[in-house]
Specification:
single chain, about 475 residues, mainly alpha, two-stranded antiparallel sheet, 19 helices, 4 strands, about 5% strand
C-alpha cells in the first residue's frame, strides 16, 4: 500500500502521541525506580562497548571500520530492551531522552565546533627539527591543547612537526612525547581541553576551577617531560648518522592560513562556553521532559552557528591541505551515543553508594574515616582511562565521589583534582587511552615513521610516565 503524504503525517502524529504517552508514563514511574536493585549485569553493555572501542581497531580493523556504528547500537539496545521490559518502555524512553538532551548533544556540539574550526587552520612552511625547535613545538602544543582541545592541537601540529624532522633518522621519540604532552596532558586546564573536563563542566564544575586547580600538576608534568625530551632529543641529534643526506622538505618560512578560525571563530567558541558557565538567568526550557537552562541552549546554538560560519568562510584549499573530512567526527558521534546510553545503569548503581552493587568499589576509594581516598581515585581513574575511554571513566568516578560539583569543588577539592588528573594524564599510557593518540599514530605512520606496537608504546609510557605519576601522587594527592 502506498503511503500518501497525508497518511505519513497521520502516522507521524500517532508516533509522536505514543512517544508522549511513553514519556509521561516514564516520568510517573521515575519516582519508584530504585537503583539499588540493579545488579552488575546491567553494566555488561557498558563494558562491552568500551572493550569494543579498545580492541576492535586492533584485532578486527576491517570489521570495525565498516560496522562500529552497528556495534554501538547493539550495545545500547542490549541495555535498553531488557530495561524497557522490566521497568516499562516509558521509563526507558525518558532515560534515553534525558541522557541525550542533557549530556550527549552539548558534548557532541562542542567537539564538532572544535573539530571544524581547528580543521580550518593550516601551518604552511617548514622548520629544521633541532632539539630546541622540537621542544618549542611540544611546549606550544601543550599550551594550545587547553584552548583548542587535544584533538585540535594534535591535528594542527603533528604534520608540521613531522615535516621538521623528516631529514632525521630517529623520530619515534618525538611522536611519543608529542602524544604525552599535546594529545593528553596539555588539555588539562579548561573544559575545552579534553572531553572528561567538559563533562565535568556540564555537571556544574566552574570553567576556571579547572585552570586554577590543575595548573600545578600540569606544570610539573609538562616541565619534567620537556626536560627529559630535550635531553633525549639532544643525544639523538648529536649522533653523526642522525641526519639524512637529503631533506625531503627544505626549510622555508612558516605561514598560518585560515586566520579567521584562529582569531575569530576559535575565541568565540571559548567565549560561548565561558559565558554559559557565568551567565545564569534562571530560565529553563522543558525538552522532552528534561530541564535545559537557557544559557546551555544559547551556548549550543551559538556553537552550531560558528560551525556553519567556519565552513562558509574557510577556503576549501585549507581544509584539503589538512586532509579534513567528517569520518572521525561521525565515528565519535556514533560511539559516544552508545556510551552515553549504556553508562546510565552504571551511574545509577554508583549513585546508590553502599546500597548498590558497586559497594566494594566505593569501599576501595574510601578511607577508614569514611572520606574519599584521593590517591586511589587518581590511580583507579587513570588505570581505567589508560585502556577505556577517559570521558565515561571520568563520569564514573565523578559520580562515585558523590556527583555533587559544589561539594567536589570546595570540600573535596583534592579528590576532584585526582579524578581530573587521572582521566586526562593517564590517557597517555596507551594508544587507546585517548582518541588523539591513535590519530597521531596513524598520521605518523602515513609519513613513514615506524611507530611502536601497542605494547611497545606501553614500554615508553611505563618507563617515562609511571615514575612521573608517582611523583604527582607524592606532591599533590597524599
Amino acid at each position: 500500500m502506498v503511503k500518501t503524504p497525508g497518511r505519513r503525517l497521520a502516522l507521524a502524529r500517532r508516533a509522536l502521541g505514543c512517544a508522549a504517552l511513553l514519556l509521561a508514563s516514564g516520568q510517573a514511574a521515575a519516582a519508584t525506580f530504585d537503583a539499588s536493585t540493579l545488579s552488575l549485569a546491567w553494566a555488561v553493555p557498558f563494558v562491552a562497548i568500551l572493550l569494543a572501542i579498545a580492541l576492535g581497531p586492533l584485532l578486527f580493523a576491517n570489521f570495525w571500520h565498516n560496522h562500529f556504528g552497528k556495534v554501538s547500537a547493539a550495545c545500547a539496545l542490549a541495555f535498553l530492551v531488557p530495561f524497557a521490559v522490566l521497568f516499562g518502555p516509558g521509563q526507558a524512553l525518558t532515560t534515553v531522552l534525558h541522557t541525550m538532551v542533557a549530556e550527549y548533544v552539548p558534548f557532541i556540539i562542542l567537539l564538532t565546533a572544535l573539530f571544524t574550526v581547528t580543521g580550518g587552520i593550516h601551518i604552511k612552511g617548514n622548520l629544521h627539527g633541532t632539539p630546541l625547535v622540537n621542544t618549542g613545538i611540544l611546549a606550544a602544543g601543550a599550551g594550545m591543547a587547553s584552548v583548542m582541545g587535544t584533538t585540535g592541537a594534535s591535528m594542527l601540529l603533528i604534520r608540521p612537526l613531522l615535516r621538521a624532522n623528516d631529514a632525521r633518522r630517529h623520530k619515534v621519540h618525538v611522536v611519543v612525547f608529542f602524544i604525552f604532552l599535546v594529545s593528553n596532558i596539555g588539555g588539562s586546564l579548561t573544559p575545552l581541553g579534553d572531553p572528561p573536563l567538559f563533562l565535568g563542566f556540564l555537571k556544574g564544575v566552574d570553567f576556571f576551577w579547572t585552570t586554577k586547580h590543575m595548573f600545578a600538576p600540569m606544570l610539573v608534568s609538562t616541565v619534567v617531560l620537556l626536560v627529559l625530551f630535550f635531553a633525549l632529543d639532544s643525544w639523538y641529534f648529536s649522533r653523526k648518522e642522525e641526519q639524512l643526506e637529503y631533506d625531503p622538505t627544505p626549510d622555508s618560512p612558516l605561514r598560518l592560513e585560515g586566520l579567521v578560525n584562529l582569531l575569530v571563530f576559535g575565541p568565540l567558541i571559548i567565549l560561548a562556553v565561558l559565558v554559559s558557565g557565568i551567565w545564569k538567568p534562571g530560565v529553563e526550557f522543558n525538552v522532552f521532559g528534561t530541564p535545559v537552562p537557557s544559557q546551555g541552549l544559547a551556548r549550543d546554538v551559538a556553537l552550531i552557528v560558528l560551525i556553519g560560519l567556519s565552513l562558509r568562510f574557510t577556503p576549501k584549499a585549507i581544509r584539503q591541505a589538512n586532509h579534513f573530512e567528517w569520518g572521525p567526527m561521525k565515528e565519535v558521534a556514533k560511539l559516544f551515543a552508545g556510551i552515553f546510553v549504556t553508562i546510565v545503569p552504571v551511574l545509577a548503581i554508583l549513585n546508590a553508594g553502599s546500597k548498590g552493587a558497586l559497594a566494594p568499589l566505593v569501599a576501595l576509594v574510601t578511607t577508614d574515616a569514611g572520606q574519599p581516598d584521593s590517591v586511589m581515585y587518581f590511580w583507579l581513574t587513570g588505570a581505567l582511562s589508560s585502556f577505556l575511554d577517559n570521558a565515561p571513566t571520568y563520569l564514573v568516578f565523578f559520580n562515585l565521589a558523590g556527583g555533587d560539583a559544589q561539594v567536589l569543588m570546595h570540600t573535596l577539592t583534592t579528590t576532584l583534582v585526582a579524578i581530573s588528573a587521572g582521566a586526562v594524564f593517564m590517557g597517555a599510557n596507551t594508544y587507546i587511552g585517548n582518541a588523539p593518540n591513535f590519530m597521531v599514530k596513524a598520521v605518523a605512520e602515513s609519513r613513514g615513521v615506524k611507530m611502536p606496537s601497542f605494547f611497545g608504546y606501553m614500554l615508553w609510557s611505563g618507563g617515562i610516565l609511571l615514575p612521573l605519576f608517582v611523583l604527582l601522587t607524592v606532591l599533590f594527592f597524599r
